Fold this protein.
Amino acid sequence: MIIPYLPIRDENMKVIINLKLGRYNGAFRKITKSLLTYDGALVDEVAKRCTEVESGARNVDNILTNTLLPEISRQLLGRMAEGESMERIHVGVGSDGDLFISRTRRSGRCSRPLVAERRLNSSRHFKEG
């Protein structure tokens, strides 16, 4: 019996990416009591970079666990070391296609965005090939 291998369609790839990011958000909330949010453009960008038919959705794990999560961890640990409590970390995609991370810290009852944003350079991160 021959079982054909069919590539994952874009819609299914995006469902997988959303499921992975949702799982990461759940763990993030449980551990840090903070919220991890992301743009729909992030899902599109990750899906766009998962074009190798042979790797399928395994490349999603590679992109998220080897690029995005370490940067989020650095951001979070750096703020925790400074005694800051983060309310939210948001991941988005800039007009140049680079990913960026912005943070909102807790300061009493109000939250204010930090001025600095950390850009994930697409030539170093999320590069195809």
Observations:
- Residues 10-120 form a domain with the Helicase, Ruva Protein; domain 3 fold (CATH 1.10.8.60).
- The longest helix spans residues 58-81.
